[in-house]
Amino acid sequence: MGRKKLYIETYGCQMNVSDTEVIFAIMAGRGYDRTEDITDADIILANTCSIRDNAEQRIHGRIEQFAKEKKQRPGVIVGIVGCMAERLKEALLDSGKVDIVAGPDSYRNLPTLVDAVRPGHPQIDVMLSHEETYADISPVRMDKNGVSAFVSIMRGCNNVCSYCVVPYTRGAERSRDPRTIVREVCELHAAGYKEVTLLGQNVDSYFWKSKEGTVDFADLLAMVADVSPELRVRFSTSHPKDISDKLIETMASRSNICRCIHLPVQSGSDRMLEKMRRRYSREWYLGRVAKIRKEMPDCAITTDIIAGFCSETEEDHRDTLSIMEEVGYDYAYMFQYSERPGTLAARNYPDDVPPEVKTRRLNEIIELQNRLGLESNKRDVGKTFTVLVEGPSKRNADELCGRASNNKMCVFPDKVHKAGDYVNVEVLSCTSATLICKLTR
Ligand code: 5AD
Ligand code: SF4
Q: Residue 1: is its pLDDT beyond 70?
C-alpha cells in the first residue's frame, strides 16, 4: 500500500498554524503525505478555533462539506482537532459525521486514533497536559516561500481573562525548553529562513528553570536574536501587565528584533478592564506604551479591541476610542464581544449590550482605526526601510512585496531581487494598508 494522503484546514490563530505543522510532522513519521487537494485525501482534518461563536459556526459548515466528501469516497476519515475539539468534546460526534476528535495536547496520539477508527466507532482524545510542548518535534513547514517560520515557545494560558475560552481549550501554561527552541531556530537559519516569529499565548510569562539557571522571555529573545544578525525575530502575543522593561530594552539593543509589538488593549475603560480581568489599568497600559516609545521611537504598536463587552456604556466605549487616539495604533484586530460558554463572563455577567449597539460601536472603532492606520503610514512617507522580500506583489507581477521591521507591507518595482533578499526602499506614498516604495541604496 502506498503512503496515505493527509489534508488539513487551519482556522484561528498563528498558534494553530504552528500546531498544524506539528501534526504534519507527527503524521509524516507514520506514513502520511500532505495533500492540498481535499478530493485526494484519505484523512481530512480541521484544526479549529473557538474564540468567537462565528469561528465555530464556520467549522460546523465545513463539517457538512466534509460529509459530502465522505459520501463520495467511503473510508475517508474526518477529524476535528484543536480548540473546538477540546471545548465541545463528545458533542462533536453527535452528528455522526466526525470520526476523530482530538484536543491541542493529543496530537502525538493522532496516528493511533486514526488506526483505531472503524465505521460507527469514532475516536476521541481531549486530555489536556501540564507538560506537552512538542519540544522534540521538527514541524513540517507550511509556508510557501521558505523565508519566514513560526516557532512555538510555550503552550496554554494562565490568565483567565473573563471573556476568553483559551484557558479551557489550551489548558495551563507551560514553557518549552530553550535549548530546543534555539536548536530549531538554528536549523531554520541553516535551511535559509530569514525570519522567525516566536509564538505563545502570553510570551512575557515564558519561564524556564534548570540546573544551569533561569531563562525569562527577554533572555530567550536575546538567545534567538544572537543566532544570526541576518535572522529577523518577531514575537506574539505580549500581555500589557507582564511586558517588562528588560524585554523592551533587550529589543532596543538588537536591530534584528523587529520594531513591532502586539499589545492587546481590549478596552480603554478601567471599569471594563477590571471586569475583563485584564489586571492592568488604562494608566498602566499607557505607561508601557511610553516606555516602548522612549526606547524605540520607531516601534509599531498594534492591538486587539473588543466592542460591547458586558454592561459596556457609551462612556466606556468613548474611553476605548480615546485610548486608540492616544496610542495611535499602527494596526488593530477588532471584534464584537461574543459570549463563550463556561467562561467567567458567561457565568457572571449578562451579555447585555444589544447586537445593533455592538455593531455600531465596532464600526466606529474600525472607522477610527482606518484613519489611524493611514496617518501612521503617512508618517512613514519619505523614510527608508530595510525590507525582507516575500515575493511578487499580489497586484502587479513587476513588483515585489515584503515587510519592513515595523511589519508594514511595502511594494516596489524590482526585477532583480527574490524572496529572502534584504533590500532598502524609500517610501514614496501610501494607502491605509501598504507603503508604496522604490528601491534605494
Ligand atoms: N469575544 C470577542 N473577542 C474575543 N477575543 C477573545 N475572546 C473573545 C470573545 N469572547 C479577542 C481578544 C483577543 C483576540 C485573540 O480575540 O481581543 O485578544
Ligand atoms: Fe487560537 Fe484562541 Fe482560536 Fe484556540 S481559540 S485557535 S488559541 S485563537
A: no
